[in-house]
Write a structure and sequence with these properties.
Blueprint: H1 7-21, H2 25-33, H3 38-49, H4 68-80, H5 87-98, H6 104-116, E1 121-124, E2 132-133, E3 140-145, E4 148-151, E5 154-155, E6 168-169, E7 171-172, E8 175-179, H7 181-219, E9 221-222, E10 225-226, H8 231-257, H9 260-285, H10 296-308, H11 313-324
Parallel strand pairs: 1-3
Antiparallel strand pairs: 2-6, 3-4, 4-8, 5-7, 9-10
Helix pairs in contact: 1-4, 2-3, 4-7, 5-6, 5-7, 7-8, 7-9, 7-10, 8-9, 9-10, 9-11
């Protein structure tokens, strides 16, 4: 079977690409890393106008979704342009609140605001571990702890991250929104959505790293010729491209089935492919690749954290092999 986006989905991706390309996202990322969320939130508002966050919110709460294929298209572009903030966590939090009848009050409060781009939510629980992303700037932080869902009252000190724009902290205290076995199941589904959207982000990061590296090796000259003409450079870039193109159908296949094992396969493939593209980009740029002033660094620093967020390679492999009935 050959899977292709329809004309409307493809145009949606191109529209986001053009919009974000004109928005100076590198400046927003640097401001976000420095603790200034203003430019990032302005960017979120523009994304909301394009309908990005409404794709994760059910129609009953003024959204358009859930539309997983369109979400994948959008989040590839968010990764390609390095959009800062808890974009994955906000969508996963929307899915979590919508799935819990006991949290209807919180859903009515937050989901229309998410769809409109007026609220950033962070989320921890399930595969995310103890840390919440950007809890210090989020309007709300949901904490799934076993059979209990809480709305955190605050967050602890920021922790060091490989990506300065990924600000991590531990949520503290808070109001209980829901209890019971439904909470555990809803958190698991929200974690799967977060893993899926992180895979889409990773694919976008890898594609942008590859694009920038191809452009660079076509300009950089050595021995009187562009280094992109060297066979070893071609092979390195070809390996990166193969990994990314292998991950793409896994991502959109998971969008159609929503099966946890297929989500894990997509997350594994996209995360590893983006990390491979980052290593190739760093090596082929040489010493200039290490400089923070170069915009390339904004994508280089995202590849490894995204690979490990919402289920690292080992966890994804274990999930896929368990589904196949193969011993790890």
């Amino acid at each position: 079977m050959r899977f292709l986006l329809d004309a409307e989905q493809a145009e949606f991706g191109r529209t986001l690409d053009r919009m974000l390309g004109a928005a100076d996202t590198p400046a927003a990322v640097r401001a976000w890393a420095d603790g200034d969320a203003g430019p990032g939130r302005a960017l979120w508002a523009r994304l909301a106008q394009a309908g990005v966050f409404a794709l994760a919110v059910p129609e009953a709460y003024e959204g358009l979704g859930p539309l997983p294929v369109e979400l994948a298209v959008a989040y590839v572009e968010l990764g390609r342009h390095a959009v800062p903030g808890p974009v994955v966590e906000t969508a996963a939090a929307a899915a979590l609140l919508a799935a819990l009848p006991e949290a209807t009050g919180a859903a009515k409060e937050w989901l229309p605001r998410i769809a409109a781009g007026d609220a950033l939510l962070s989320l921890t629980g399930g595969a995310s571990g103890a840390y919440a992303l950007d809890a210090d700037v989020a309007d709300a932080v949901l904490v799934g702890d076993g059979d209990t869902l809480r709305l955190a009252a605050g967050c602890g000190p920021l922790r060091v991250s490989a990506d300065p724009a990924r600000r991590l902290s531990v949520p503290e205290g808070g109001e209980v929104l829901a209890r019971g076995p439904l909470v555990r199941a809803a958190v698991a589904r929200a974690s799967d959505l977060a893993a899926f959207l992180t895979a889409a982000q990773s694919l976008g990061v890898g594609l942008e790293l590859l694009r920038r590296t191809v452009e660079y090796v076509g300009q950089r000259r050595q021995f009187g010729v562009a280094i992109g003409s060297f066979q070893v450079v071609k092979h390195r870039l070809a390996d990166a491209l193969v990994g990314l193109e292998f991950a793409r159908p896994l991502l959109f296949g998971a969008a159609l089935t929503r099966a946890p094992a297929e989500v894990a396969a997509a997350k594994l493939a996209a995360g590893e492919a983006a990390y491979r593209a980052a290593r190739a980009a760093l090596q082929l740029h040489g010493a200039v690749g290490y400089t923070q002033e170069l915009d390339l660094s904004l994508w280089l620093r995202k590849a490894r954290p995204l690979r490990d967020a919402w289920g690292g390679p080992a966890a994804c492999r274990a999930r896929v092999t368990a589904d196949l009935g193969v011993a790890p």
